[in-house]
């Protein structure tokens, strides 16, 4: 019998173009001023150094997204964004660089720039480990106008630290470049992102791409014969019919009385887990306002094993956001303007991030396979002992990986009418 598996995808596309005004290089800046050198060797836990910063950035970005989206569902990969802009920071200088570091929550008094990039290097190696029990791949690529002369140091660093492919293309033939980029994205995301890029700005000189592909199965699989039609409650009075999966298992859970929410951890096979945060009715904003890495750390440390009955709907969800607008609110302004200093990227023309080609999209889907069902969201729970009944109308989910719990995906489900049901 065919069953379902969880598929998470994220894609960031950043376009660089020539600034409208040519501003001379600041005096005293030279190509060899780069602070990112060859990576240090032998530090297996190097990725843990950036985990706190990545968590801080993720929660700040999440709060900005929820402010803009209101009560809409939210789904995105903070790791995809932080990796793309950390890679871009290799070519940033002066105030442009400091703004990126501040937005990404990197404090150079605590962590040297070289250590930041070395940590991303180690993180990419761990996530792309072919021996992991989950199918997870993350990668980067540069599509470069063949007339653009990249600085050799930048090219070496993006290759060394971020394992980025560098692909030279004839940007004068924009249709050909768009097809090349879309074919690359389609291949790397196993056909799940098709025709992602519609056109190419005539000013574009380089396209930076980051992608994440994740497919995994729960340690304790769901049985297909336990799936049935059931109600997903939009509010206390209204509901919609969905396909609901069910299981009775022991999971790590925690009740936060102060924030009025339940927390449930459900592990995938491999060192990956989903942390479901389930606010009591009317307390979503209270919980979201308290979302900090220390809050999540306290939840994780307070988890206890208890029997639980899970009822979870099957659906797909996607999110696409105006990253430029959000980053500006987070203090990143220079890189999108004529004040951008990306002189470490290329010689000659001064570059800026394109005003029209900053694309970010994340997708969660289910694929038909011969493997067990995974869980896609938590609707309601029956907590034992005593079978305390807890109805849940919405929730927040963090999908984490690796020791140190690097957050790969965030999801908020607050409006089931926006979800795509699956049969």
Automatic annotation (TrEMBL):
<protein>
    <recommendedName>
        <fullName>Serpin domain-containing protein</fullName>
    </recommendedName>
</protein>
<dbReference type="InterPro" id="IPR036186">
    <property type="entry name" value="Serpin_sf"/>
</dbReference>
<dbReference type="InterPro" id="IPR042178">
    <property type="entry name" value="Serpin_sf_1"/>
</dbReference>
<keyword id="KW-0325">Glycoprotein</keyword>
<keyword id="KW-0722">Serine protease inhibitor</keyword>
<dbReference type="Pfam" id="PF00079">
    <property type="entry name" value="Serpin"/>
</dbReference>
<keyword id="KW-0732">Signal</keyword>
<dbReference type="GO" id="GO:0004867">
    <property type="term" value="F:serine-type endopeptidase inhibitor activity"/>
</dbReference>
<dbReference type="InterPro" id="IPR000215">
    <property type="entry name" value="Serpin_fam"/>
</dbReference>
<dbReference type="InterPro" id="IPR023796">
    <property type="entry name" value="Serpin_dom"/>
</dbReference>
<dbReference type="InterPro" id="IPR042185">
    <property type="entry name" value="Serpin_sf_2"/>
</dbReference>
<feature type="signal peptide">
    <location>
        <begin position="1"/>
        <end position="20"/>
    </location>
</feature>
<keyword id="KW-0646">Protease inhibitor</keyword>
<dbReference type="GO" id="GO:0005615">
    <property type="term" value="C:extracellular space"/>
</dbReference>
<comment type="similarity">
    <text>Belongs to the serpin family.</text>
</comment>
<feature type="domain" description="Serpin">
    <location>
        <begin position="59"/>
        <end position="416"/>
    </location>
</feature>
């Amino acid at each position: 019998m065919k069953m379902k598996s969880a598929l998470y995808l994220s894609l960031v596309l950043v376009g660089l173009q020539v600034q409208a005004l040519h501003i001379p290089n600041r005096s005293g800046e030279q190509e060899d001023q780069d602070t990112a050198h060859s990576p240090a060797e032998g530090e297996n836990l190097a990725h843990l150094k950036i985990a706190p910063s990545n968590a801080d950035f993720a929660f700040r970005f999440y709060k900005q997204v929820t402010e803009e989206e209101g009560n809409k569902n939210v789904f995105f990969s903070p790791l995809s964004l932080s990796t793309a802009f950390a890679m871009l920071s290799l070519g940033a200088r002066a105030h442009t660089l400091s703004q990126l570091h501040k937005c990404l929550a990197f404090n150079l008094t605590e962590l040297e720039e070289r250590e930041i990039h070395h940590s991303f290097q180690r993180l990419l190696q761990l996530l792309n480990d072919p021996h992991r029990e989950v199918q997870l791949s993350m990668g980067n690529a540069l599509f470069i106008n063949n007339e653009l002369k990249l600085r050799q140091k930048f090219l070496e660093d993006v290759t060394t630290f971020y394992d980025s492919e560098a692909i030279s293309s004839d940007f004068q033939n924009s249709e050909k470049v768009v097809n090349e980029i879309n074919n690359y994205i389609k291949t790397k995301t196993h056909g799940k992102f098709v025709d992602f890029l519609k056109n190419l700005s005539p000013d574009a000189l380089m396209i930076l791409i980051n992608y994440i592909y994740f497919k995994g199965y729960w340690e304790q699989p769901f049985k297909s014969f336990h799936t049935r039609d059931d109600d997903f409650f939009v509010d206390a009075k209204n509901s919609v019919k969905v396909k609901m999966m069910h299981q009775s298992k022991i999971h790590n859970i925690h009740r936060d009385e102060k924030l009025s929410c339940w927390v449930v951890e459900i592990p995938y096979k491999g060192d990956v887990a989903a942390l479901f945060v389930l606010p009591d009715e009317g307390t979503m904003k209270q919980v979201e306002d308290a979302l900090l890495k220390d809050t999540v750390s306290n939840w994780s440390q307070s988890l206890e094993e208890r029997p639980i009955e899970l009822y979870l709907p099957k659906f797909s969800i996607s999110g696409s956001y105006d990253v430029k607008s959000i980053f500006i609110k987070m203090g990143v302004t220079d890189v999108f303007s004529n004040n951008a200093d990306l002189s470490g990227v290329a010689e000659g023309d001064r570059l800026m991030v394109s005003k029209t080609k900053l694309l970010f999209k994340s997708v969660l889907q289910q694929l038909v396979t011969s493997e067990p069902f995974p869980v896609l969201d938590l609707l309601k729970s029956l907590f034992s002992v005593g079978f305390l009944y807890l109805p849940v109308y919405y929730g927040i989910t963090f999908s984490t990986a690796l020791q140190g719990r690097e957050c790969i995906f965030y999801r908020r489900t607050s409006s089931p009418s926006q979800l795509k049901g699956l049969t």
